Here is the input.
Amino acid sequence: MDWGVISRNLTFLMGGLGVTFQLAVFALAGGFALGIVLGLCRISSRRWIYYPATVFINTLRSIPLLIVIFWFYFALPIMFKAPLTAFQSAVISFIIFESTYFAEIIRAGIQAVPKGQVSAGYSTGLSYFRTMRHIVVPQALRNMVPALVTQSIVIFQDTSLAYIIGVKEFLRRTSLVDAREIRTVELYVFAALVYFVICFIGSSISRRLERRQLS
Amino acid sequence: MINIKDVSKWYGEFRVLHKITEEIKRNQTVVICGPSGSGKSTLLRCINGLEYFQEGKIIVDGKSVQDPSTDIFELRADIGMVFQHFELYPHMTAMDNISLAPRKVRKKSREDARAIAMKLLERVGIPEQAHKYPGELSGGQKQRVAIARALAMEPKVMLFDEPTSALDPEMIKEVLDVMIDLAKEGMTMIVVTHEMGFAREVADEIIFMDEGRIIERGTDESFFKNPKSERTREFLDKILM
Here is the structure.
């Protein structure tokens, strides 16, 4: 055992953790934004809005994320005739993939708000948009918070899959150090520990939020 | 004020409203009663466009509810509605529940809207509850806040959809008292209710509905003493005991 391998490469590894966080933040922000749109499409009564969104969501949710990452990495540059960096194509894959999960969380959160609340908003003359903005969404968000936090944790872990297309995030850098120093056990124990600590903090927050909601 | 003409509505194959025709004049209070599933609430929800009907016409204050040229949101602002299950916004205080629509629809300033809300809370007798959330109020208090919320838009008509049926018996009176005052002040009201005491006191007309049709209409005592149809008599016997 040589735990010194970690301190010797700490800057390099932590730089990778920075990339991991960047990936997660982009995936979270973009996925959530796109998820709101998709989620609203899923509760639309208009078929031409509802069906494409539903097909899109169900298709992506039936494909492993790894394939989506691969696909965007190889297909996007060909389709748009524009070279994308590995980081960019990873971000696009994450946003699109995670948006389908966010969409379902948002749909469920909105549908959990009683219909009578919408009637009440409408009956006072509020528009669809204002009823959503002031009455439905605040209540829906409150319903969604625990699921959103959980999904954010999942996203954080999912970012490690960007490894496969060569994005130098935390896990990739761990393997790079390992290739040089051959300290597999120490390095991957450390990597697992880092993921664990961050996710554990996240899930504690989620649990606390859930408890506060119950009270 | 409200003109309902030959309104019919279907849920799929099932006909909920059967050529309903009714006129409600300004300052009148009309009570609608009838067994559950008779279409009373549906009719009420058609008046402010919360439900779609396939045939007929409803004119409120000169505007046709389902006419494409009518801005239904604008029309709804003039029609107050009170629901059986209150439907207060649980994430807002009583004050905010009342002042939301005046601010967003009537474009009142926050201060003006709050002043209106406070005045209405005094009117319904619970100014001290202004900063409480719906979860902290009793059923009767909730419904009074809901009435204040509707009144805050200075509506020309008020619709009440079984406003007391979800309340504990000891709280019914406090809500009815508010409604009676409102009727006596000249508000145009349509009230779906089984509170026949209320109907006796303020109704200009009482309508009995069953299976999507208006079976009987009467003014006050005649309705209770000599109902024309057998169905109305049975129903009145049941609810008056």
